[in-house]
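Hello forum,

I keep getting stuck at the same step: I have a sequence, I want structure tokens, and every attempt I make locally crashes halfway through. Rather than fight my setup again tonight, could one of you with a working pipeline run this one for me? It's a single chain of 231 residues.
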Amino acid sequence: MRDFQKEIKKASNEMSRTVVVDLDGVIVDFKNCKENCDYSGYPEHITLRREKCPLDPEAVDVLREFKKAGLTIIINTSRVEEEREVTEQWLREHDVPYDRLVTMKPRGFVYLDDLAHKFTSWKNAKQVVLGKYATFEERAEVYKEAQEKWGEWSQILVAIEEFGELITVLAKRNRNLNGATVEDIRNEIADAMVMLEHLLMIFGKEECEKIQRYKVERLKSWFKNVDKMIE
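Reply #2:
Ran it on my machine without issues. Output:
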């Protein structure tokens, strides 16, 4: 019974990190595919035309963001198993990131599913899967509004306040005081992250990241020096 519960929990965890994506009409730009995807003589003729279908121009970038977020991507298609080779070749040629291709999805005029999302655009799909403001660029628009409304110096003062609150909960946690739970710390970290990104906008994100890379490389060199000292 315990092993069964473990398997259920494992399956649930995997499902929460898996995105199932349709191929034709989602990854494949079906609107501009009709002249190449002639369904007459299916299935003998269509396989030869599949390889000419165009890629939706936004698909690869969004799917890469899904992978970067640690998600598993399963492509589910109604194409028959005999079309797997030409389909996988097309995916490779267009550099489409995915983990598994599942064929033979039952054909129907409508799919009723409690987790289904009607695909309208990759921008909308990204918001559904990753949530709004998943990228720095999206969050930057909100930060810009705040800075224009209250001023840069006001946001710097808020940053100081949020960093101070993070220090306080970490200190409480270190002293095992009541009221500093892991969730409290996560909330304060999130607040600090928001304000840190405000500061990046104010003082230059690219310049700060350049210095950050240098400091990480310096930290790595320190490890090597410590290892030599130990030897």
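Residues 38-42 have pLDDT under 50 and may be disordered. If your local run keeps crashing, start a new thread with the error log.
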